[in-house]
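Example record

One chain of 118 residues, shown exactly as stored in the release files.
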Amino acid sequence: MKHGITICLAGAAVCALAAGCASKPIVDTYNTDMVQYEKDLAQCEQIAEQVATGEITAKSAAFGAGVGAAYGVIGGDIGAAAATGAVSGGAGGLLKSDNEKAKVTKNCLRYRGYAVLN
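Predicted structure tokens for this chain:
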């Protein structure tokens, strides 16, 4: 059982690290005023900060804990399985909220007339 917890925690760490890399928009800058683009990007990123990161993460952690506890009933160690599930769910929630912020930023740039390629 401890080996499974180690694998889950390692997976959660990878998810958390990947979340920080996934959000940069790729924009076709041909004929683009880069000074204005940087201003617009900063404003769009500020708007994206309204995504409820804490709420998404907490819900994902709670769901993960529930799934982990159910698995623990079968495996015999409910507490450890629930804790592992909470960590994994929390990491997944961070990734989900980061992806949501990226989506908001990209949509904002599109609405301002930029050709967002990703």
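Notes: The radius of gyration is 19 Å.
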